[in-house]
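Form 7-S
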Amino acid sequence: MAFEASATNLSGRIPHGSASAFGNLALALALTISMACGGVRSTSTATAPAPFATAGQATLPEPRDPSPVPTADSGTAQPTVAPLSAGSLVSVGSVSFQVEVALTDEKKAQGLSNRIPLGPKAGMLFVYSEERKRTFWMKDMHFPLDMIWIAADCTVGDITENAPVPEPDQSERDLPKFSPNVPIVHVLEVNAGTSQRHQIAAGDPVVFSGSLEGLHGC
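Output:
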């Protein structure tokens, strides 16, 4: 528009004889400027930039999930099975127990003290070479026990049920002592309540099998 106003002012100063030629020139120039300013419209369309990935949005194809890995149940905690001697089995009546065997004096003195609870069909077998009455206690125990006293003829001689764990401030001299009513040669310790659950009773046969087969008289 500024340029068009200047062209009109210049045409009034040119001599009359040149007015026509100059008018044609001015007209041509005006048309050229008009086309340059607005006569041609761009047909290109601006391309919007691709949006950035936001947090949590994958920018690459998601990989396939791996095979699920089993995890521990997050519900109620279950007793943990104590380490056992593989293949050492003691059958009492109709039920069999996988047992850890205490043969040395050190192992017998330690027993199940300061240990994690046993599995439902696990136990510890104390092996002795002579038959007599023996005395056990529950020093440093964290779970109650049944003590199955095994006689020399490989039968259940007696049972001590539900031997309790010590009180928090109970001194060693005040700990209760447990002994069978008859002489025995071996002792099987299992979780408290096991004898009643499986109806184990005095006189039931006891058989050692697996890695214990043919050993220790039963």
